[in-house]
Design brief:
The structure is a homodimer of 234-residue chains. With 234 residues, chain A is mainly alpha-helical. The first copy, chain A, has helices at residues 10-24, 36-42, 47-59, 81-86, 93-114, 117-132, 136-154, 157-172, 185-203, 207-233, and strands at residues 32-33, 63-66, 70-73. Chain A has 2 domains: 10-73, Winged helix-like DNA-binding domain superfamily/Winged helix DNA-binding domain (Arc Repressor Mutant, subunit A); 81-233, GntR ligand-binding domain-like (Four Helix Bundle (Hemerythrin (Met), subunit A), Up-down Bundle), CATH 1.20.120. A 3-stranded antiparallel sheet of chain A has the order 1-3-2. Chain A binds a DNA duplex (30 and 30 nucleotides) through helix 2 and helix 3.
DNA sequence: GGTTGAACCAATACTGAAATGGTTCAGTAC
DNA sequence: GTACTGAACCATTTCAGTATTGGTTCAACC
């Protein structure tokens, strides 16, 4: 045998193909990528080439992998998440939004103090994915990853756990997730601008600016949530 | 057949027998009791009688039961405790103080918005207790109660859970509790003034003022902590 | 150097049987 | 009616065995 064994730049070819898969977002089981063996056969490359490509994507913070589990889009879950889920209190959408308003601006401020250049690159990559996402599911995925990365970069274990607490509740309350979805292209463009502004302040090490930008962003989300709830009541 | 079906006070007899088992402590797998069916046959009673006895013991807090799991001596495991246990080794006094600085000012602001006249009275009573305490232990106790009440009045379950988490971690960091103790009468007087200022802002429904007053207070505590740590290093 | 294919390792998920507390019901004895 | 027994069934959890998946190593090929 010894079919084709040479494809000098297969790693890069596969990398770009997987990048396209991520961009288009058409995955059989959405947040999860096909396993390495299947990617290998489907893309006509060795498993080594596939793994090289995945390693690059993981370094960029676009995917995460776990032995025995699989490869997934976004950021890895907080290790304390399982424990956190045990104590999440029941909350209504408005109080969850209130908690976000009181937690995340502070996290953005700390993030601005502590982010490295590499961190900023990752934040940008995630913000780009939010903007490039065609469907609401992908947007939600990447938006969640962006906010979580800010919380992680803030680098305070207790505050990160508090964030996870809030995030768990938010994820569990599926009934109201639709409400937080942008209803128009204008809103989407606004969110993209707000994300950019937050990241720019972080890059400039402007803590108060990052805090303010995050506050503005969440106030916008909060307003939309209230409007959507009032709409249903009326 | 229909052997003995009457044992008019079987529940009580079984209850006492199980009590003896617990007292003597000779259980095959120690913290765990034999399952209900086995107890039933071994003690010559119906399962109903055994369950009645176990219900009484559970109400007393001597045992706890979980479907599919078993019956065990002592109190049920506390999920929050497990979370705290995981966070404590990964956190140092400064990061806990940082979390306080990012959580409590917001709680004070919410508190100012939501406190009733009765709430303010209770806050004042606690602040008086702090000021009147003669020893460091009781000061710590009442000071903790004051800050916790502010968090409760803020009336957001998520933020309250986050605060409780932080509070428990703080309590668990025994190695550094001495450091946070005021070292002089001047400091004590300053803390008393700061507490008063926080409560006055809350009473005046001045959210930003309460936030600022709490920030000032925590910054003072933070400065003392740093000074005490630098002292030990030098 | 990079690539391929194959095998093996280690962590995780999955499946099905068994164990366990929770519940209901008919029957029995007082 | 009240209390107890026995049996059946339900819901949750555990456990053991299997399959899946990423992680690693190796020989061979260009």
């Amino acid at each position: 045998m010894t079919l084709e064994a040479r494809n000098p730049d297969n790693t890069n070819r596969v990398l770009m193909q997987i990048r396209r898969m991520i961009d288009s977002g058409d995955l059989p089981e959405h947040p999860r990528l096909p396993n390495e063996r299947e990617l290998s056969t489907r893309l006509g490359a060795g498993r080594r080439a596939v793994r090289n490509a995945l390693e690059a994507l993981e370094a960029e913070g676009l995917i995460w992998r776990r032995q025995g589990k699989g490869t997934f889009l976004g950021l890895p879950p907080d290790p304390a998440g399982a424990l956190v889920a045990e104590i999440v209190p029941a909350s209504d959408p408005l109080s969850v939004m209130e908690a976000r308003l009181y937690l995340e601006p502070g996290l953005a401020e700390l993030c601005a103090r502590r982010a490295t250049g590499e961190d900023v690159e990752r934040l940008r990559a995630l913000a780009d994915r939010v903007a490039a996402s065609g469907d609401a599911d992908s947007r939600e995925l990447w938006d969640g990853a962006l906010h979580r990365l800010i919380a992680r970069i803030a680098d305070n274990r207790l505050l990160l756990t508090a964030f996870s607490l809030m995030d768990e509740v938010r994820m569990n309350e599926k009934w109201q997730r639709d409400r937080q979805r942008a209803r128009s292209a204008e809103k989407l463009a606004l969110y993209a601008r707000q994300h950019r502004k937050i990241i720019e302040a972080i890059e400039a090490r402007d803590g108060p600016g990052a805090r303010q930008a995050m506050t503005d962003h969440l106030n916008e989300l909060s307003g939309n949530l209230r409007a959507s709830m009032a709409e249903d009541d009326g």
